[in-house]
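tool_call: predict_structure(chain=1)
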Amino acid sequence: QVQLAESGGGLVQAGGSLRLSCAASGSIFSINDMKWYRQAQGKQRELVATITSGGSTNYADSVKGRFTISRDNAKNTVYLQMNSLKPEDTAVYYCAVEAWSGAGVIRPMSTYWGQGIRVTVSS
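tool_result:
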């Protein structure tokens, strides 16, 4: 199995910055895409950013130019640098990792989720 540990959330004023981290651990054979989602209160969970195993990135229109996703494959960690934060960025942020896991026998690729970390942007 794969466990994800998120960190870096908190309270920040509008215009400020935060950096989220999500470290994967466990019986990891290989990691494919790594993603960040967010869910604001009363709204559906939305995809914020994706980074592929090859390093290609994709962003939701609402965060383009402000957020940057990156990954450190040696550390099995994905980051989300969030700049010029707005009150509408307030949400619980979740990382999601597509990974093959197992030792000896490799399990089919599955998506693993972090527990979520709260980001609050005050106006």
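agent: The two ends are 40 Å apart (CA to CA). Proceeding to next step.
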